[in-house]
# Entry
Amino acid sequence: MDTFVILRRGGWRSGEELGEAAERSIAEGDRMADDVRWIRSYVLAESDASVGTVCVYQASSAEAIRQHAYRAGLPCDEVVAVADTVVIRPDPTAAPA
# Structure
């Protein structure tokens, strides 16, 4: 599997909506386990007070990512293949949402 970053801008009005979307994503990911694996997400505070995400996935293809998003009812504004990973410091500890 290759690594991809998915940009989902302003997809949800609240953290609660995002949580519901995460549940759908996990369920669909379980059905597509050979093609899509969710690694992590960064939640974005959009300027219009909505919530977006930048998600890191491993997948068999960019099309598998798009299919997963469609089936889970998730926005999928942009899918970009990751060429390499450079870790300078580990991710900071998440603050309570």
Summary: Helices lie at 15-31, 62-72.
